[in-house]
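Issue 218. Parser rejects a valid record. Input:
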Amino acid sequence: MSNLLKVITILFFLFIVWIIFSADTGQANIFFDIVNTVPHGDKLGHFFLFGLLTLLLNLVLNFKSFRNWKMTPLGSILVFVFVTIEELSQAFFPNRTMDINDFIANVLGILVFTFMGYFLFKNRVI
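Output the parser choked on:
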């Protein structure tokens, strides 16, 4: 199961990278079309994409934490750093716009899925 989870996590991360690349280069994408049909779809997309990535990465890392930050899983920190850099990088792409609401949706997804995953992990549900 561990190797399968690693593969799923890597594939999901690559999917997110592809979505970001498509947005950065202004390419059409069926997922953008789907998101645009749902009210607040963009924010929900941010919430669930980065929340799920957080959950998967924390599970792969067995909720490992930094020495000094016992309550903050490494996977959550890594995803937070990634989304922060990605959101700031949008200033350099003519097809993108930095949006604080996107960043807030990212952070909320990270937080919710961190707590949900930690609860499930601690109670041996997953």
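Fixed in the parser; the record now loads. The chain has one domain: 2-122.
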